[in-house]
Amino acid sequence: MPPAHPFDSSYLRDAADEDKLKEECGVFGVIGVTDAANFVALGLHALQHRGQEAGGIVCHHPEHGFNSARRFGYVRDNFTKQSLMETLPGPLAIGHVRYSTSGGKAPVIRDVQPFFGEFAMGGAAIAHNGNITNADALRKELIERGSIFQSNSDSECIIHLMARSLQRTIPERMEDALRRVEGAFSVVAMTRTKLIGVRDPLGVRPLVLGQVADGWVLSSETCALDIIGAKYVREVAPGEMVVINGNGVESHFPFRPQKPRFCIFEHVYFSRPDSIIGQRSVYETRRQIGIELAREAPVEADIVCPVPDSGTPAAIGFSHESGIPYAMGIIRNQYMGRTFIEPTEQIRNMGVRLKLNVNRALIKDKRVILVDDSVVRGTTSRKIKEMILDAGAKEVHFRIASPPTAWPCFYGVDTPKREKLLAATMSEDEMRDHLQVDSLRFISLDGLYRAVGEASGRDASCPQYCDACFSGEYPVKPSDQIEKGFELKAAE
Amino acid sequence: MPPAHPFDSSYLRDAADEDKLKEECGVFGVIGVTDAANFVALGLHALQHRGQEAGGIVCHHPEHGFNSARRFGYVRDNFTKQSLMETLPGPLAIGHVRYSTSGGKAPVIRDVQPFFGEFAMGGAAIAHNGNITNADALRKELIERGSIFQSNSDSECIIHLMARSLQRTIPERMEDALRRVEGAFSVVAMTRTKLIGVRDPLGVRPLVLGQVADGWVLSSETCALDIIGAKYVREVAPGEMVVINGNGVESHFPFRPQKPRFCIFEHVYFSRPDSIIGQRSVYETRRQIGIELAREAPVEADIVCPVPDSGTPAAIGFSHESGIPYAMGIIRNQYMGRTFIEPTEQIRNMGVRLKLNVNRALIKDKRVILVDDSVVRGTTSRKIKEMILDAGAKEVHFRIASPPTAWPCFYGVDTPKREKLLAATMSEDEMRDHLQVDSLRFISLDGLYRAVGEASGRDASCPQYCDACFSGEYPVKPSDQIEKGFELKAAE
Amino acid sequence: MPPAHPFDSSYLRDAADEDKLKEECGVFGVIGVTDAANFVALGLHALQHRGQEAGGIVCHHPEHGFNSARRFGYVRDNFTKQSLMETLPGPLAIGHVRYSTSGGKAPVIRDVQPFFGEFAMGGAAIAHNGNITNADALRKELIERGSIFQSNSDSECIIHLMARSLQRTIPERMEDALRRVEGAFSVVAMTRTKLIGVRDPLGVRPLVLGQVADGWVLSSETCALDIIGAKYVREVAPGEMVVINGNGVESHFPFRPQKPRFCIFEHVYFSRPDSIIGQRSVYETRRQIGIELAREAPVEADIVCPVPDSGTPAAIGFSHESGIPYAMGIIRNQYMGRTFIEPTEQIRNMGVRLKLNVNRALIKDKRVILVDDSVVRGTTSRKIKEMILDAGAKEVHFRIASPPTAWPCFYGVDTPKREKLLAATMSEDEMRDHLQVDSLRFISLDGLYRAVGEASGRDASCPQYCDACFSGEYPVKPSDQIEKGFELKAAE
Amino acid sequence: MPPAHPFDSSYLRDAADEDKLKEECGVFGVIGVTDAANFVALGLHALQHRGQEAGGIVCHHPEHGFNSARRFGYVRDNFTKQSLMETLPGPLAIGHVRYSTSGGKAPVIRDVQPFFGEFAMGGAAIAHNGNITNADALRKELIERGSIFQSNSDSECIIHLMARSLQRTIPERMEDALRRVEGAFSVVAMTRTKLIGVRDPLGVRPLVLGQVADGWVLSSETCALDIIGAKYVREVAPGEMVVINGNGVESHFPFRPQKPRFCIFEHVYFSRPDSIIGQRSVYETRRQIGIELAREAPVEADIVCPVPDSGTPAAIGFSHESGIPYAMGIIRNQYMGRTFIEPTEQIRNMGVRLKLNVNRALIKDKRVILVDDSVVRGTTSRKIKEMILDAGAKEVHFRIASPPTAWPCFYGVDTPKREKLLAATMSEDEMRDHLQVDSLRFISLDGLYRAVGEASGRDASCPQYCDACFSGEYPVKPSDQIEKGFELKAAE
């Protein structure tokens, strides 16, 4: 295996939400507007929930050529400065927000996308949402053939594969490159004159097409179309490549067709509630999950409280279905950011307390149903339970808007190792005892499928979604991980 | 009038919530703990909603004396750096967050509290929440007598009055000084050995007392006690001065007693919903406002949506009382911060869109009740209405959780000039037409009083609260403002 | 004694020249030009050798009023940014560079001059070069009478004394204030319409008057007139106050006349060699010192080398008089700045080596005369000697261009405590042995007086200069220091 | 030609010395010491005169692997921060300071060396002083074969050539790569275990070997050995590759031998006067140039003044030989840095005045000989002449310590285009008239050769040095430049 790359700087990881799965990326691109980079900045701001660590923009101007900026931190703190935005002229731009590197080292600016490469026929930039499951093998092969990698990012493989393609045009070279790549990817790319979007054959990660004035937009989610006033046109189809220039949108299907397997967790947690996926409102899907959950796992109680903010729509649905009043039992501090120095040992559970506070007067003497989107390590769930009991609740019932998360994701989501997932080693009852709550129930996998609109639930012989994190059934073999020792679920 | 003071730097005002009244300050102090400044940092973080522009901490250590730090920006971004916090040692510290200067000039670090003064008997620092209504007159008098002001802040008068007092102790000098001061004030102060808290005789602004381990805490709100795990003891009473040292809490009442007039807007908007004021949960009060509003101003509709986040509890109450389902029709972007550069004129209403997005799929073809906490200029209400209609709503009904805001506040809240207040120049019906909504109703003043627990409503002869912003009845004469031309409400 | 003031930030002291006396301040002011602050920035840059720690500018514009900026660090790094300079408009400005605070605490921005005060008749700003020898007593008195000090700087007394004066105009109040002040001061001040300069009755610190286009300039040294192309007019006389407005320069003499005692060390080290003091070129005076030194203390050797850069003119003079060739035996690194981390203990004497390197090939096997301007603690001299011997010199002879520095300065120069001055505890021979050099000779006090143009040397009964650092004869009683235990030289 | 690369940030060019040739780089490496990066920081500080724009360090630690930092600005401002240096552990490190990019675009951090590459057998970093004259051709070829360039730097070719070599070890791959490269290069490189140094066959740029404690050092100049207390061992020979590990120094000669042609301008200006080149003190060589110049071009005058600081040794030599007194007629401001905003048009020649001031009292009524190291565009010479005359000099005679600079350098020095070089279009007399001085004389090429120790002057048939900037005789064909239209000197 190649040696680790040197790194340049250190960076503080955001302390909030440390017990959630993290979407690793959001991508956005625009062509045919004045000052495209400003649109991209707005789009990335609307996609910030998909990656908070860093963001980057590459743009092209007929006179000023390619320009780029990559920064750690929030879009709003970097890509709002006029002095910076003025260095990013032109009618064509793409951008990327990301959560983290694949490795465990400190993040480095070189790993921040979009990546750029000069080819004999001109430059191109690409931004990638997803994960390449054969990246280690590809990287090793490319290095042996003389490629110099500049980042630790798996996505850089794509640009090197493009550089070595014998095709004459950049879109053709991208097809060549992506045919060598396994895994999940939604790619937004650009040349001097074209905006390009591609989704992997399974369509694991989202990508939508929009229109703004005379220009075109590609975005991970529809909420980023709204912010720039763009009209939603359609999803880029699984396995489709769209190539957009002044003449409009050309569609190609360079891969062997497969049955789509969209990531079901996008519905549960990753996407914003105001986005629309597959004609469905994400908010409505989550409310339906709450309804299903109330049907599957009813319990007598005085109030239904969301764990803010991600549990809110499911809690509203649960309250609606059960008739138990909805209430804000936990208040989120809007100003949360970096970690505080712990003042003394007198103060426990500070991490959660900085972000969440219990509405003590409301909770006291109540039987409380807490609705959360998922349980990953279980550390936050335990702290929340303690805060609720400390405030005088009589009973605490957890209702979880997803099935037990028992398997890591290898398709562009940051998950702990399998042994750190609470559901990998415990049954539902064991988790209840571990968390010391009065009851704990997860929605069933079938219930979840019903909530996303599959009336007859999951088709076990050929699931309609990628649900590997719940089922352990990986639609693309995680070959690098297997090489490193990961064991697939034993055939039943 | 004295000349304006020179300023040092420029600063970008936060664009979010530009159409709300702003609490100008939060105060916090601790004595008797290790590294008190860390506790103050946490407390100020929990009080950040009371002032986002700047924060300051002064502390005292027996060996290292007084130390201080003042910074623009959020507490989380400044007072979390170990290198800074290490310069703030000792068991006694006070802090302050603030929204803005009284003047219109760019903010300067010299205006950031706490203020510090050396007296013949030692140093003292004070942090002030409120506003001194005779500050201009006091300042003029003090300058004529040879005081040198270092800030543009009215609060600096207090420290100069203390410096000129002939009393022998700092608490006595503070009494002397505060007896000269008119207006609303909750003060947290410290000497080398004492933590001091004072509320004005009307008790307009809040101040509570708590206990943490062997130490004592003073805070604007109880939510800041929770974050450090402190126990709520009681409110500091209107007109009370508490002086706390190693021997415990001494109570004084240096002012002529008056009937209290607590700010009713703290219940409506300023305080955090998880705080407790006068034994009442703020969240519950707001939910009650929603219930009252549903009784006073019912309307047929499909969903009740809060304008996030401040309208949420009242919307829950409205839904509960009316039976109309509660729903999240508007989604707030959690990553909002400074303003973006407007990309082009194609994009209108960007200010609101950066912060809020409509849940289009939910809103379409619905009759929507929007519950908001208040209407100030009306600019944001209008934009929200447009976004809702643009998403396809059939009807839009505004329900406002406070009476019409028709008068400016002179007691520590940032309000526009009277002529900018929509309710100062329009009736409820005129406002409805102006906003072009299907209906617009405010809670009545009596309804609001009922919601805060006054079963028989407002006692017009002797109101139980300060409600000047609604009624125009100012419990303390705003003498500086009258000097500048402000006209009181004509006697009826 | 009053308690120390809280401080705000930490700052790294410049490591270079740590074994020199330091001038504490330079002052500069301009009236009657467009964008006066730009002129002041240039002037302060030319005076940077008088104070490297921090700089400040206050200016006034008829419309924009007073504005100011204070910054730590070099003028070139702060006052060259257009974004900052644009906040400093107007035809009238003053500025200040300083070396350090009087106390030992970390420097704070509040201590950076000019100081500003609002008086009943308008604002005024002052910048002060020198030291007030009765500042502690004044400060104590002012605090007892109710003044609030905002800095640790003695110079702040002046503004408080002005605030308490009963005079009607600011210049009159300044006269009032300065009559209460003892010590050495050259003050540059401004009101909204006037530029004011004052020197103490002894004229210890320099101040010159210049003309640029239609405007007037006040500056510590003439080299700062050159940089803005100003014409040198004359020195402000000892005890004189000049008040400059649109009508020209008015001259006042508010103090009781005394025989002048200009600081002789300005000739030796503080002033720049290209400045002119009392009609004499500083460079030429220093060259004359070298000539006198060669006459007083000749020695056989191969080369005469300056300790760069301050020893250079005297070395040129020494070489000229002795006929021994002048050579650059020590090379100064032009890029010196903050301290480096010492890599390991293997490397000794790094502090000096970072700044100076021996020209080894030149020095080897030579008898070397090293000419330095002064010996303070002797620490640097010792390290230089070691470097020279290490490079293979056969003999090392130190020749010092000033008499032994045996007494601290209390008139605006940073000197170590008396016991740290090598010459306070050792004779010339003992110092030679201590430094382990082949010979060590200082110029005599009479020789120094001859070099500055007093043909018959020092008039012991009534010295023509302040030479307290050499003679221990203090022309103004250092009363604060005596209070703190400093012992004057016993009468002989 | 490949498209321009996108750039990331803007940067202000240092204003000082804008009329000098600029060495583009300095290199430094250490192996076998604790915390090698600290040594490299010190070494780069001593080499700062060879490149002020940016610096970089790469290091390797057996546990922590490769780490790196690249920064714009001075070494002292970046590589002195403990927080940064702690991220650079290990016993092996190399570093680089550079003046500028080859292109005209804004500098970007990606162009800052050392460059790093992962190969199949491990990582390697290289730092390059010099210029590759066939870089454009190599880059084009490499891109066509699929290499992705990450910088605009010609030096990156080396790492890509190494990546494509079929050799088994990194030193062998480096030999392979450097055999493809034309031009001038002194390279310092490292693997995980080895420090490597190489000079091109002509030895145009310097590189020396030293020893410190148990470790070894490679440096552009000996002055950087002195700063870390290292012992000078020898020069790396032209065409030599040294490979250093725990077992000591191995020497290879991978290139076809050629007669060396060291850059003669290193003696004249680039190297520091306290460095030793080819057994000769640079200071002494420059003093000899002054002596030769006094013999070749004597003139009657009152004083000899250097243009500081580079003209100083030659002025000392000129004074010594001519008997005319040496004097500091021009004083350099030690605090020079970035450009100032020009205050108004009243002030001309500010660029020079910020850096240099005339010692007016000395110059007045004198006949002045000014000794400068070179004349490039002549712009500064003209301004200095004006300042000298403005101060009242009677006559101004320029004596230049190098022959007329008539040709650009293509071997790692930043020179203006040929048409901007004053000497390319004017004879010595024409230049004198152009500068309007009383006389102007350059040293002859033979005189310069004598001064560097070639007693019989230049061997025209086979010059002992590279003197292309004076003679137009380029020892390596500048093929990229010829491709772009540069015309070689016509054969005579």
Automatic annotation (TrEMBL), chains A, B, C, D:
Pathway: Purine metabolism; IMP biosynthesis via de novo pathway; N(1)-(5-phospho-D-ribosyl)glycinamide from 5-phospho-alpha-D-ribose 1-diphosphate: step 1/2. Pfam families: GATase_7 (PF13537). Its EC number is 2.4.2.14. Keywords: 4Fe-4S, Glutamine amidotransferase, Glycosyltransferase, Iron, Iron-sulfur, Magnesium, Metal-binding, Purine biosynthesis, Transferase. Binds 1 [4Fe-4S] cluster per subunit. It is an enzyme of class 2 (transferase). One of its GO terms (molecular function) is amidophosphoribosyltransferase activity. [4Fe-4S] cluster binds at C263, C409, C466, C469. The active site is at C25. It catalyses: 5-phospho-beta-D-ribosylamine + L-glutamate + diphosphate = 5-phospho-alpha-D-ribose 1-diphosphate + L-glutamine + H2O. Gene3D superfamilies: 3.40.50.2020, Glutamine Phosphoribosylpyrophosphate, subunit 1, domain 1 (3.60.20.10). NCBIfam families: purF. In the C-terminal section; belongs to the purine/pyrimidine phosphoribosyltransferase family. This is Amidophosphoribosyltransferase. The gene is purF.
